[in-house]
Amino acid sequence: MFVARFLTGTNALHPDHFSYSKVAQHLAEVTPATKAIMIDCFAGVGGNTIAFACSGRWKRVYAIEKDEHAVTCGKHNAMLYGVDHLISWFQGDCFKVIQDELAPLASHSIVFASPPWGGPGYSTQPVFDLTTMQPYSLHQLLSTLREFVTEIALFLPRTSDLQQLATANRSSSKVKAIHYCMEGASK
Questions:
Q1: Which residues, other chains included, contact 14 with Cβ-Cβ below 8 Å and sequence gap of 6+?
Q2: Mean pLDDT of 65-73
C-alpha cells in the first residue's frame, strides 16, 4: 500500500521511513476498546500515523514530530491517503507537546513510540543496548510517558536487549514483546 503511494507523489525523507500497516492493524486489534486516541510520539513523515488513521480504529490520531520538514511531508502524505481529517499534527518535542497540549486526553489515549535509535549503526550490534538510544534512552522514554498514560507501545530494533526492556517495566504487569516478520524481513 505505501509503496504504491510513494510512486504516486508521497513525500518521504527516504522510502525506508515508512512502516508497515501490519503493526498499526495489530495494535488496533489488541489495545483496550476504552482507548480511542492514538498518539504517535515520533511521527516522522507519517508512515505509522497514516496506518493508524487508515485502520479505522481511532477516533483521532495525534502525530508529534520535531522536524518541521517531516511534519510538512507527513501532512501531505496524510492528504494523499485521504486521512488528513483524522490526524492532528504537532511540531515539537513529544514530551512538551504531551504535557502542554494533550494531557487532558490521557485517560483515553495509547502512546505509540518508534523512537530514533541513534542512527544506522544500531544494526551492526548483535544486541542493541536500549540505554544508548538518542535523544532519549529507554528509561527516559518510559518514565516520562508513564507520567501521562498507562498504555505504551514501543517499536524498537529487533535486536533490542529484552532483559533491559523487562527491567525497565516497574509495574507488576508483564511486558509483551512481539517480533514481526513481514515480506520476508524481521521487524
A1: none
A2: 95
